[in-house]
């Protein structure tokens, strides 16, 4: 076995904290049944953050319009349930396929230009879809949203389970989709393809000079990230029974960027940890001070950026020079 193959195998070895993370997510469904709705929101946001981390943390593609894929997945799942059939699994596959198709089409827009160009182009795509969803009110419900989305029972090897108001079935369903997507993303980033993506992120010209197909790799990772974001949007529509223009709004893209600021980029679990911290802070601060929660959340982010994530988690290193 070559040294490169050994290095890849060592990098892909499961760490104890990865297994602990999956165990914690599974146990949360059992231990916190009264918080299933909040936990479901956290899991959906985590999946959305994982999708953005694939292109931002591993390929170096900055995007302010990632909500485009989240939103198209949400509307695709809702329309499929309302117009075709209410089966959640098939609807999820449809949402993923539509989001992946949109990602493949939009990937041509991010192959050229600077980071600022990509920011504006991705933001423009999300804005166009927002206006289309608003104008096509005969299909999407317009500003009122797509209402009356009723999901059928969740069929599993253990039986069929109806979606309940407490969110227990919805959270279990979201955890399964989150786990599958994270496992697939983990396999991707620890493969030779994933290593080549990091080479593109660090120096695209040097990667091209050694024979790597830069454009093909960017198209593939952008499409995969769009598909995972579509899965997150589909989960939101399926578990809430509603899709609105809010899924295309700029704050969706900004929110998931904040999650990665908190959790860190370049490793998949940063999206999961960041989503947990962000949502819990949001929930706790908004309950404590509904009018000024944005101020305190913003203050936390400023401190996090100025001090550094490592120094917050290890206070004894504060005295060290940067």
What does this structure look like?
- This protein is mainly α and 322 residues long.
- The chain has a single domain, classed as ABC transporter involved in vitamin B12 uptake, BtuC (Orthogonal Bundle), CATH 1.10.3470.
- The protein contains 15 helices and two strands.
- The protein has helices at 3-12, 16-31, 36-58, 67-83, 88-106, 115-135, 137-140, 168-189, 192-202, 204-209, 214-240, 250-263, 269-288, 293-307, 309-313; strands at 154-156, 159-161.
- Strands 1-2 form a two-stranded antiparallel ribbon.
- Helix 3 (36-58) packs across helix 13, helix 4 (67-83) packs antiparallel against helix 5 and helix 4 (67-83) packs across helix 11.
- The longest helix is centred in the last third of the chain and has 27 residues, at 214-240.
Q: Tell me the helix content.
A: over 70%
Number of DSSP strand runs = 2
Cα-atom Rg, whole angstroms?
A: 20 Å
Task: Report the CATH C-level class.
Answer: Mainly Alpha
Q: Name the quaternary structure.
A: single chain
């Amino acid at each position: 076995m070559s040294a490169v193959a050994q290095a890849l195998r060592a990098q892909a070895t499961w760490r104890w904290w990865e297994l602990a993370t999956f165990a914690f997510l599974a146990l949360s469904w059992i231990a916190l049944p009264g918080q299933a709705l909040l936990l479901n929101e956290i899991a959906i946001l985590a999946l959305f953050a994982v999708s953005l981390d694939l292109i931002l943390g591993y390929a170096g593609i900055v995007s302010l319009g990632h909500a485009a894929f989240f939103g198209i997945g949400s509307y695709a799942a809702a329309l499929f349930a309302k117009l075709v059939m209410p089966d959640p699994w098939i609807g999820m596959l449809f949402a993923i396929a539509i989001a992946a198709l949109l990602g493949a089409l939009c990937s041509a827009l991010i192959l050229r230009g600077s980071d600022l160009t990509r920011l504006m182009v991705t933001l423009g795509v999300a804005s166009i879809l927002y206006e289309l969803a608003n104008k096509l009110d005969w299909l999407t419900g317009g500003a009122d949203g797509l209402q009356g989305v009723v999901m059928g029972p969740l069929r599993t090897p253990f039986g069929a389970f109806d979606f309940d108001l407490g969110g227990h079935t919805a959270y279990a369903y979201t955890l399964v989709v989150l786990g599958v997507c994270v496992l697939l993303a983990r396999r991707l980033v620890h493969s030779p393809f994933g290593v080549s993506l990091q080479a593109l992120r660090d120096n695209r010209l040097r990667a091209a000079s050694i024979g790597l197909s830069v454009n093909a790799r960017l198209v593939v990772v952008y499409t995969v990230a769009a598909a995972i974001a579509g899965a997150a949007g589909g989960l939101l529509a399926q578990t809430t029974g509603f899709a609105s223009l809010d899924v295309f709004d700029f704050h969706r893209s900004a929110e998931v960027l904040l999650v990665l600021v908190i959790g860190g980029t370049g490793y998949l679990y940063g999206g999961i940890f960041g989503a947990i911290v962000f949502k819990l802070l949001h929930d706790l601060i908004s309950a404590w001070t509904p009018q000024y929660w944005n101020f305190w959340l913003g203050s936390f982010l400023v401190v996090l950026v100025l001090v550094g994530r490592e120094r917050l988690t290890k206070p004894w290193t504060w005295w060290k020079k940067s």
